[in-house]
Design goal:
Thrombin, subunit H, 1 helix, alpha+beta, 131 residues, 6-stranded antiparallel barrel, 19% helix, two-stranded antiparallel sheet
């Protein structure tokens, strides 16, 4: 679902702000290598993944607004993709994928797999049974 021309925030009936995203996020911790344009490789660990981006914890600053190359391994394969450094909050960075490539297929398959795994683990934690 895309929200073209609208704010990334919506007001829910209870008048609380709810963030509207194009794709759901899935918790994922893998090593990430970031290749900024004119700097040495930066290593970090992902926090979560969606079909449109990734967030990661980094110890070294990466410039906001810069397009970088990301490399990381998913259960569905190796990924090398370009991304825009969209946001930063302390050591947590948000990257938005900026290219359509075969990496998107690998990421999409991983997100579908993570969705099933995380729903299953949440159901087990609450004692629910999936039908």
């Amino acid at each position: 679902m895309e929200f073209e021309g609208s704010s990334p925030f919506e007001i829910s009936p209870g008048r609380e702000f709810v963030e509207a995203r194009r794709h759901p996020r899935y918790k994922l911790e893998v090593e990430v290598r970031i290749y900024p344009r004119n700097a040495a490789v930066v290593r970090g660990h992902s926090v979560d993944l969606s079909e449109s981006g990734l967030s990661a914890m980094l110890r070294v600053e990466v410039p906001l607004g810069e397009v970088v190359r990301l490399e990381f391994a998913l259960p569905t394969g190796e990924v090398e993709i370009h991304a825009l450094v969209r946001q930063r909050s302390a050591f947590r960075y948000g990257f938005q994928f900026v290219e359509a490539s075969s990496a998107q297929d690998v990421i999409g398959r991983a997100c579908r797999q993570l969705a099933v795994e995380q729903v299953t683990s949440e159901s087990q934690a609450t004692g629910s049974v999936l039908s």
